[in-house]
Amino acid sequence: MLRARLKFARGVLFVLAVFPSLSVVARFGAAQSNSNSEARRREFLQHLVAAAIERTHHVVRYEPAYVRIPYPGGDVPADTGVCTDEIIRSYRSVGVDLQKEVHEDMAQNFERYPRRWRWLSSRPDANIDHRRVANLKVFFSRKGESLSLSSRAEDYTPGDLVTWDLGGDVPHIGVVVDQKSPQGGRYMIVHNIGQGPRMEDVLFHWKITGHYRYFGPAL
Predict the structure, then answer these.
(1) pLDDT (tens digit, 9 = 90+) per residue, 76-98?
(2) How far is the C-alpha of 77 from the C-alpha of 173, rounded, in Å?
(3) Fold assignment, 2-213
(4) Shortest CA distance to 68 belongs to which of 76, 80, 79?
(5) What is the pLDDT of residues 6-51, one digit of tens each?
(6) Region at 218 (left for phi over 0; alpha for psi -120 to 50; beta for the rest)
(7) What is the pTM of this model?
(8) CA dist 146 to 71, 79, 125, 160, 211, Å?
């Protein structure tokens, strides 16, 4: 009987010794996983910013016309485009096809997207849906992170996506990059407002209507 009790006591001590260790290991593993995830996100945004800045070396004629394009991976002619096309092309450079991602989400959740476009079409259209700012706003809020609409420049960091109302309900979109304006000290924006892709200090030039961060489906 005594031997059995001693054996039981040793077993209890063993469990008490092992399980706290397992708990520590689990917490360490979770922390390490979170750290790796954050590192991957930072790296993704760095590549996205580099891709956006690279777009400023292209000559693009502003052309908003409806164009039939292949799916997936389709694009309008390289020398044409609008503000959304700079976002689409930047993401495609880092392996994310917004045409495909937006179309798939709209096909499954069409009622969640702006009614304005549903009046024009009774079903998703992979030729144009991803090229509309209103649709991108819904998509980024659903699949990415929707951030605060702040009046503080420091709240907007490289890789963030910003949308504006230019006036008269005319939407616009651009991406924050890691170059700062010598005058304002703010991170600049890569966008196309009619003169092709440019990097400019325009964060607060118009009314901000959206602020997002999107890492693609993989992250």
Answers:
(1) 999 999 999 999 999 999 999 99
(2) 20
(3) endopeptidase fold (from Nostoc punctiforme) (3.90.1720)
(4) 76
(5) 454 455 444 444 444 545 444 555 566 678 899 999 999 999 999 9
(6) alpha
(7) 0.84
(8) 27, 31, 25, 10, 6
Count of other CB atoms within 10 angstroms of residue 205: 13
**Residue 72 carries which DSSP code?**
S
CA distances from 175 to 54, 80, 115, 130, 183 (A): 12, 19, 26, 16, 19
- Distant-in-sequence, close-in-space partners of 37: CB < 8 Å, separation ≥ 6: 219
Whether omega before 114 lies within 30 degrees of 0, making that bond cis, reads no
Take residue 39 and report the two structure tokens written for it.
Answer: 């590192």
Answer positive or negative: Cα dihedral of 41, 47, 51, 52: positive
pLDDT beyond 70 at 190:
yes
The first and second tokens of residue 204, run together, are 């607060």
Query: Which residues have C-beta within 8 Å of that of residue 7, sequence separation ≥ 6?
Result: none
Domain ranges of the chain: 2-213
